Amino acid sequence: MRFLPLVTAFSIAAAASAFAAPAVQTVETDKGKVVAAENGMTLYTYKKDEKGESYCYDKCAINWPPYLGDASAKADGDYTLVERKDGKKQWALKGMPLYFWVKDKKKGDATGDGVGKVWDAARP
């Protein structure tokens, strides 16, 4: 039974990582440094949202897919979660919900920055 403490410690560490903030990174774009998801795609905020509240649904959410967390996601530091109307959890940075832009195709694209004067690339 000498392996039990090691297995238990590993299980606790794995469980703790499942509840951490989203995997994000800082990416250099032609618009400067932005916050991107783990896949390198730029994340955006919507000026019509309020802290802790998303107003981007239906056609808006088709063009600006929300950055969703899984059911076990927990807020951590500047990264919080907003509950959407369908009950899904959306990541937020300093309370502002985060989105992708369908026209961004690769890491470093930030083509949604400034769209309609209501979308901004999230900044580190």
From TrEMBL:
InterPro entries: Lipoprotein_repeat (IPR005297), UCP029720 (IPR014558). Pfam families: Lipoprotein_15. Residues 1-20 form the signal peptide. Keywords: Lipoprotein, Signal. It comes from the Bacteria. This is Lipoprotein with Yx(FWY)xxD motif.
